[in-house]
Each structure stands twice: as C-alpha cells, then as structure tokens.
Amino acid sequence: MTLKGFAAAFLAVCCAIAAGTLATYRPAAVATAADDLVGYGKRLVTETFAEIGPDTGKPFAGNRLACQSRHLDAGTRPSGVPLVGVAKAYPKFSARSGRVISLAERIDECMTRSMNGTTLPQDSREMAAFIAYIRSLDGPAVVQAPPAPTPSTPPDAARGAEVHTRVCAACHQPDGLGRRAGRGYEFPPLWGPDSFNDGAGMDRFERAVGFIQRNMPRGIDPAHPQLTLQEAWDVAALLQSKPRPRYAGR
Ligand code: HEC
Fold first, then answer.
1. What are phi and psi of 172, to 5 degrees?
2. What's the pLDDT band for 198 if we cut at 50, 70, 90?
C-alpha cells in the first residue's frame, strides 16, 4: 500500500468510527430525562396524593393515599407487597380478569380499586413513569407468603374493635380515619371515604390478615409479629364491617 493509499484508508476508518460514535451518541439531556421518569415514578408511588390526588390538577386518584400506604418503603419492603421484580412477570394471567393482562392494566387496577380513582391515559407521562420506576426495581421477585391460616374462632369485629383501640388507634386514630399531613396522610385511614374501595385486594380477608400481621404496627419485624393470628383476623373483620367507597367497575 502506498503512503497515500494508507492515509486514505486510515481516514476512511476514522470517519467510519466517528460516524458510528455519532450514531450511538446520546446527549446527556436524554439520559437525564430517562432518570427523571424513574424519579417521577418513585414520587408517584411515595406521594401519590401530591401528584395525582383529588387536590391536584390531575386527580386520577380518588383518595389521598399513597401507593406506599400498601407497597411499603416505595415498594421495596419484602413483607409489604413489594414491587421488586414484578415487572418481568407481566404480561400475566389475572384470575380477577380471567385473561392475560399487561403491567399497565395491572397499574390501572390499582388506580381504580386501591386508589378509588380512574385509569391513566395509556400515553400519559404518569403511566410511563410508573412502569419505568417498577422496571427499575429489578431483582428476584419476592415469593408471596402463603395465605394466613384460618383462626380457631370465627373472626369477630367486636373483638377487632378492642384490638384497634389497644394497638392501631395510636396511629390510625380512634375513629380509624387516619391523621392528615399536607395533601395526604401521615397515617392512612383504615376505612371511610378516603380509604381503598371494596374492589381492592386489601378488602379481601386473606390478604389483609397477612399484611396486618407481618407489618402492623408499622416497623415491626415480620418474623416476630406483635398480633396473634386471631387478633389479626378479628381486626380484619373490623375493617370489613366498616363503610368504604364502592368499586365503580362492577
Ligand atoms: C406506629 C404507627 C402504626 C400503628 C400502631 C399501626 N399502623 Fe397501620 N399503618 C401505619 C402507616 C404509617 C401506614 C402506611 C404505610 C407507610 O406510610 O409506611 C399503615 C398502613 C396500614 C394499612 C394499609 C392501608 C391501605 O390503605 O392499604 C393497613 C390495612 C393498616 N395499616 C392496618 C393497621 C392495623 C389493623 C393496625 C393495628 C393492629 C395498625 N395498622 C397499626 C402506621 C401504623
């Protein structure tokens, strides 16, 4: 190869590399926007009431709860209905719907049931952010705890009221309606107009009993529950006996 030929070939290779670099180059702003989507998704989970609650300009949620009222610690607490690793499980068969549903559809089920609100527009920044945040919580999905065993005595709301007064009222308040903070709650209501509706998973005995026994009072070690199984069933019976919004989608 002549020197001129070599120079030409060298230049061509350099141009090809430069072109390739340009083709794959992403300005920093794009990366930040993607990070922001995850950040916004996290905020939607931790401060749902402040972003899409009834007192905001985008009232998709019909109550003042946060997703993390149930998905504890922004969906990272293993005992508190974690969101870690769930994204890859979708599309997934839903017994409730009787068909395969997408992650977006599952999020909308939470929106219309637990959040007593409306579905999110499919092309909204909110839906994209929820999905981006849930996808960012990558890891092995937590194995769901088996349903709580049935108690020795049928659950009783009157005994549950006694458990509520003794254990729950300090935070959730004697009237069970929670303690407000800003546009949301420091301690969420357990029933009443601002609580999850009767289509929510938490309105099902088996779910509520396990969640309450492993997580309440908030902060306990799930391996050492404070409530006995009977107490958890009784207080779940109290929650069942109280008024809450009706699920509109039936
Ligand atoms: C030390 C305060 C505290 C006590 C005591 C407590 N909770 Fe909670 N509870 C919370 C907080 C805070 C949350 C919301 C989760 C969060 O913000 O981390 C919560 C969430 C819940 C939820 C989920 C609400 C929803 O909308 O899904 C239920 C159900 C619940 N508590 C039931 C109970 C019951 C029943 C008792 C009594 C046996 C109890 N809690 C005792 C602080 C407490």
1. -80, 0
2. very high
